[in-house]
Amino acid sequence: MAEETEKKASDKGPEEEVVVPESKTDEKTPLVLATAEAEEETKKPTEEAPADVAVEKETAEAVALASTAAETEAVIEQSASFKEESNLVGDLPEPEKKALDELKQFIQAALVNNEFNPPPPPPPPKSEEPPASEAKVEEPAAAEEPAAKAELTAPVETKAEEPITTSTSEEAPKTEEAAASSVPEELKVVESVEVKAVVVDEDGAKTVEAIEETVVPVTLPPPAAEEVAPAAEAETEKEHIKEPEAPASVEAPLAPPAEEFIWGVPLVGNEKSDTVLLKFLRARDFKVKDALAMIKNAVIWRKQFGIESLLEEDLAVPELEKVVFYHGQDKEGHPVCYNVYGEFKDQELYAKAFGDEEKREKFLRWRIQFLEKGIRQQLDFSPQGVCTMVQVTDLKNVPGPGKKELRQATKKALALLQDNYPEFVAKQVFINVPWWYLAYNRVMSPFFTQRTKSKFVFAGPSKSAETIFRYIAPEHVPVQYGGLSKDNDPDFTSSDAVTEVIIKPSSKHVIELPSTEPSLLVWELRALGWDVTYSAEFVPSSEEGYTVLVQKARKFTAADEPYVKNSFKVGEPGKIILNIDNATTKKKKLLYRSKTKGTTESA
């Protein structure tokens, strides 16, 4: 029998990992499109230099990069694998526990002081000159002022000439004094008014005289005897009835501060809150004040951007479902998000997403909405839950630096996501990366932290599938990226494990699928890059039985379908034998899985 080698593809040489640049924060956003920025940087010398010098310089750079392309593709720096920190408070080092407790206290104080609300809008600017309407109102008032004074003086002068002494209290009749004295003091009403009069002499001089007028008191008739008696009794009862004393003034309790939520989790109050706060602390190297400022800015931005209402908006664009989508999980249970920017090579889709400022804004809102929904639906913020995701970014056919609109939209999104979505990436895998980009990042890698290097991986076109399989099992990897995972597959699911086999050059591999009872046997397989010959047959256990050819020998190439699925209805005990012949001088990775189904089920 031909030599065969079976193994699970968990190990891979050090030649397929490279770091990616990171900005000020340690954590990068799921919407990274560093290609455009890198291409812009490589383009700068030609924009600033004269044409002939730029051409020479560009040629020299191309030669230099080309000379290292093969080396970069074959031998890429190996970075230490990133290991996620625990979110259990008990597992944290003492300095980190102290920082978390201190941050909680700061947040409680900020909640009481309403520091998580956006600042009020600035007041409208005040005009220095009064409106014309106000000026018109003031002019008549100034003109009428002398007239008003004249009207006030005229009647007073007339009154001053009248005999006013007859109304004084000294000349009041004595009968009135007697009547007033018989009335109780509290029933007397006396009003004394002082009037100032302006008197004009014959020579025109004006004098002011004060005249006192007294209004005759009004006397009320004494009440009848029968009315006085009940009133006296009522007064007596009031004296015996003690009015309840007013309670001492008690200050009303202050209303509790309003809760603030982020990604559906309150900032304080439960164990999920600790997970959220730890994200911000790690993004700021456990500098409490910096983390607090980041949280405040993030909460305020979410309110201004309208995140909660954004979740209810209908921003679906069917074509964009091919650009960004979730599919499966990695070997540690992290959900996996794929970003396929090469789809924007379609000019119609590009114009629909970035054609003008309004469309770019809508794309940004759609991308934020997609991320928000993914965080709430895919992640678990409990201390032992999965609260990060794996990002796979495909740079195949990505638009170049000439796509200014894409660059602008990406730059804006990058800034927002860096500031408001910290520590959400467990691993960022870039695949189908152009050789020039690998070389560029190799030069830039010394400038970035070890934490960043351990999270980001780059793979060239020939190593993309193998690199993905280091982190994601083939049953979770979409077919277009080398796996066997398909939507709406009636026969296999992600729970059906895939076996990985390495076929050595110029060798064959044989797979046996036994069946002991009547059943329907289903299997599927693929060899990455194909260039192998595949055949299948059923061999009965009985020597009197006949071998049945299931799949005629056929050579598959890279241009053929990515995988093959076959089935065979077994009527007697026997086995299916699959033959895969690798006649090339390169090793091949083979993926396959099988399942036995009831005879009533169809493949």
Automatic annotation (TrEMBL):
Instruction: Give the location in the cell.
Output: Cytoplasm; Membrane
Q: Which portions of the sequence form the region Disordered?
A: 1-29, 76-185
Tell me one GO molecular function of this protein.
lipid binding
SMART domains noted in UniProt = CRAL_TRIO_N (SM01100), SEC14 (SM00516)
Ranges of compositional bias, category Basic and acidic residues? 1-15, 94-104
One biological-process term from Gene Ontology?
cell division
Which cellular components does GO assign to this protein? cytoplasm; membrane
Q: Which keywords annotate this record?
A: Cell cycle, Cell division, Cytoplasm, Lipid-binding, Membrane, Transport
Q: InterPro entries this protein is in? A: CRAL-TRIO_dom, CRAL-TRIO_dom_sf, CRAL/TRIO_N_dom, CRAL/TRIO_N_dom_sf, GOLD_dom, PATL, PATL1-6_C_GOLD
Q: Which domain of life is it from?
A: Eukaryota
Start and end residues of each CRAL-TRIO domain: 313-489
Task: Specify where it is mainly localized.
Answer: cytoplasm
Record-annotated GOLD domain positions: 495-596
Q: Mind telling me which SUPFAM superfamilies this protein's record contains?
A: CRAL/TRIO domain (SSF52087), CRAL/TRIO N-terminal domain (SSF46938)
The entry assigns this protein to a family as follows:
Belongs to the patellin family.
Mind telling me which PANTHER family this protein's record contains?
Answer: CELLULAR RETINALDEHYDE-BINDING_TRIPLE FUNCTION DOMAIN-CONTAINING PROTEIN, PATELLIN-1
Q: State the protein's name.
A: Patellin-3
Where is the organism placed in the taxonomic lineage, from the top? Answer: Eukaryota, Viridiplantae, Streptophyta, Embryophyta, Tracheophyta
